[in-house]
Amino acid sequence: DYSDEPRLLKESPIPNLLAASKLAEADEALRHYLYHHELLGSAAHRGLLALDCAFSLIRAEKSRLREAWPMLIECLCALRDASALPIGLADLDDFADSRGNMLQPSPFARQSQKRLDDFYRSLSGMDDGRSHSWLKLPSFFMKDSSPLGEPDDVQERMGGQEPSSMSRALLSVTETADLEQVVLMRPDNLPLAMKTIRALLDTIDAYPYHEDPVFEHHAVFSLELAARAFFANRDRAVEIFPMFYTKFQTVLAASHGESHENEPTPFLTERIVVTILRACIHLYDIAEVRPSLRSSLELLMNLPPKLIRCISNRFACGMAIILRGSFYTFETSEEWDFMGDMLDMLARFGPGRGFVFDGIASTVEYALPSKPPSGGISIRSREFLTADGCLVFCRLLTRYVLGEYEKDLSLSVPAILCLEKVYVHMATLKQTATDAPVEKDISFALRKNIAVSFFSVCCTNDPDASQQALRCFQNFLHCTQVQSMSDDKWIEVLGMFVSSKQPSTEFEASRANTLTIILKTLLKTLLASSSRRENLDDLSDIINQTATLIRENLRGGRRGTERSLFERTVDIATQTVNEIVKEDFGGEEDYCKWASETLVIELEDVGASGGTFKQLAAITKGSN
Fold it and tell me: pTM for the full model?
């Protein structure tokens, strides 16, 4: 009578699928024997005792592990499949967002888990496939098996439900075995550490695992254990890391040129990417290992774009951590250019864009002082950004502001705040530098993009954002010397401003702010360009266009508000005219006189020229 079979099987600590498969395939006599003796007796208890004894022996004599390493790794992987390893040992280390929330599993992780679930589900007879029998269950459960693991009920485990009795029985053994001390130990001698890590990495050698869905899952876990053992022996990184690099090359070379749909094991590729990033995070401060780490990062640049998109959040998060923690170790322009190329590549994918910006913003906040250093402290005595780093950040931040990443403007306002801080820091570096001037490394194209970035945000309808952009532009203009750009370049920048679409006069703050930028740039341009006759035609067109903008503001800006567009336009135009007519202004005298008169005419047309020096002088002369 086998009426109590289901209950006893459920309570049995051996794998349910194993027991069910053996009983289903046995004849009556063998069924009786298996049921009463092997399955519910010796395998249930002596098997657990043997497992406990093996772990105790390994823990006591861990330095003597030799040929047993493959079997131990196979055993650990199978225990993990059965949810029978302690949580700290079974989990894969991963990245979290800025709020501390772990990133959601990638499509590759979900796909790998599904393949594993489907495989074990097929063993229980839930599908028509008969190619997988109970003989392919892990060897520590029975003899002559293939090195595959089996969970009791993967769906229950993944759904967060209570573990099975089998899992609890095995877990009671592994929790007392102190397995982390065996696998993640720091041995006294280097050969033993390398032997441990090599045994774990050898699991990857079967790549690409076309025939078996379980191999990828176990290779990923073995790579995780190898990485942890490596980080526990960081002082031996120079000798150990080449073993990892060889494995990385093998797997990633097979991924190059393949889309993730065609790649058989994209989850392993994802975990290699994560492992390389973790290695850089933990070890980039070791100068001897740094070249090898950079070579590993270079392997990632050639991954298929579709694959990178699926893991771009993890990829970008890791790179952001590396940037924030190791930026001061980037000593050459080549290192900074490589970092900039990596960040630019990841920012092109939506899931990674925010992480890239967070990395830049946190580095700027940490590396640059909120106020210029004083009290005789050298700007180079702290971990400040170098000029090369500033150039890379400026290029990336202008792309955020101008929406060059999939027309995404969501980060444009915080980006201009970082951009302004970086540019001001570059000017400070130039003033304090004793070596070659920094300014010569700033191309006109980059400086123009910075100016356009501030102007574009200033044109937005949001008055707060527009005001912040105006402040940033004023600091930019203050730090930019007239001679840093040729006169025709100043005219080009100013011409772009006046010819751009201006905010509607309904948005008074933005309209007044853009005019402020134009007039302040005009002062710099007159200084740089008015002395050369070949510039005067273009410059005259710009001044006439500027006068037209003033006229439009004055006619459409009287709305009776506390600080109307009309009043702000009068103030900034008057300040500009008064600056131009000063004797010490520095531009070509006759031309500057014509420019000032052109602007004053617009003020006179509305009776608002009383504050200009010219009008004040006429009033004074008349009263005398």
Answer: 0.82
